[in-house]
What does this fold into?
Amino acid sequence: MSNMYFTEEHQLFRQSLQDFLKKEVVPHIDKWEKTGTVERFIWKKFGEMGFFGLAYPEEYGGLNLDLFYTVILLEELQKINSGGFAANIWAHTYLAMTHVNKEGSHEIKEKYLTASITGEKIGCLCITEPFGGSDVAAMRTTAVKKGDSYVINGSKTFITNGVYSDYLVVAAKTDVDAGHNGMSIFIMDRDTPGISATKLDKLGWRASDTAEIAFDNVTIPASNLMGEEGKGFPYIMQHFALERLIMGINAHARAEYALEYARQYMSERMAFGKTINKFQALRHSFVDLYADMEMCREYNYMVASRLNNGEYVVKEATISKLKSTKMADEVAYQCVQFLGGYGYMEEYPMARLLRDSRLGPIGGGTSEILREIIAKMVIDKKEYKPAAK
Amino acid sequence: MKILVCISHVPDTTSKINFTEGDTKFDTNGVQFVINPNDEFGLTRAMWFKEKQGASVTVVNVGGPETEPTLRKALAIGADEAIRVNTEAIDGFAVAKQLAKVIEDGAYDLVIAGRESIDYNGGMVPGMIAGLTNANFVNNCISLEVEGTNVTATREIDGGKETVTTALPLVIGGQKGLVEESDLRIPNMRGIMMARKKPLQVLEPIATETETTSVKFEKPAPKGAVTLVAPDNLDELVNLLHNEAKVI
It folds into this structure.
């Protein structure tokens, strides 16, 4: 592990986290993969261990640590091989909570961020809609101000933690004619009348709770607006940099896990009188994949370091997700091949890893959209600027 | 009550063991090190004394700077301070002499050591430090209660248990049973962050001598291939057990 980015404290955290995941999470993974529901007790345990508060202010119970603690959390979550469980955790910690922390008022943070850090409240972030995933600005969900309230109508889909979370961070149009400038961000409790959720069945991430959510005249106090009205789009874009880097880091970590598993398997599996790691075709294939993984990992660490230093790394984070998720898919595909028939069997880890990995180039901005963004920045010289807040 | 917990820095039980320099030295390449499990049971019991009886807990290790992450983990679990005696742990007697000096200088009431470390399995250090510091000694200790200076301890003996009473100052050779595996603590984030603020004192070693020299290490012979015998071929099974395995 690179000492350029990780101190002794980081390593102690990584070791503790590995011990915790092995003891408290791994024994339940197969069950959660089947039920699609992560039981509540584990959220509380994550909270007690302090894992939800790594990146958040001490004022609300967090630890305000550098981004490499987050990198470790993400990496180790991938290495227990349940993309769905990992998604539940990081969608709460880095999608919902990031908005609460950055845009929420002190009162909102006291109510939601503190309880999110202890694991008592779980959050979800609702941006994608059935009629427009990547085209965020075209969203149809509306928030109409009436006196001291907003009334929300519309629907969202592919929302991680969409069924079992306690609160929702929701993007909606406060001015339908203002395009990018007409979007705002709200927070609301799950039990607010008019909110309903339907669980979705999906190819992978099977332990994760993914939902379509309907908002039918959901009335919330005006104070549940987070940040400024009309600033929703830049807020979302700003946090997309972190989300994309997270997905890049997740990708290199699951590829690293898959390659390590395959390396071990190939050193034990015998064919024609020798272990299969002696066959040149497999050795070269393995090394090509390993080299790609390491290039992505080191690039991702560099982007994390720059983000940690306060740089606005929207281009770099976009490249991270684009390249790392493609690499991880190729690694997953080939690691199934290295294991032969066993790679296709559920009792070996590669089958789950292959289907979980496939979400990488889709969620959080498809690879096609990412290429468009990079093209605008590199070819058209478009500059993206961080939101004011 | 002042407690000293002796912490050995040992390879993780899942490590692949290899030797170098003509099989005279353990190869540490690629090996992950952990708190010796017998010591961790003792440390966890020490935390109970800290929390319930207000004891102070110091952890100590004899070893080079590479052992400090293991001591930091003990601090993250909840020990108050750490001491590292800056010398290689060459043999049981040399380690015991260094520890005895730390114990005498610190006037500890209770010294908790694992009954043996899981790397070299010497099992000598607890008894030696009790002898060198003129303290009482309970080995294979699976339960420990202290009231004032009175101690009730339970030892594991062949096929059963023995309960003994004794008094502080005391050295125990602890093991599983002092606490159970489910009681072992994983450091939380607060513990990890506090650990870096807790004192870790590095002491230079006293002059000592060694009484033994490692000449050679050997790994167990690799397991042979499995021979499958048909369920109705008992004669062949008996033949193999008698003539090949030589177990009957």
The radius of gyration of chain A is 21 Å. The longest helix of chain A spans residues 232-268. The mean pLDDT of chain A is 94.
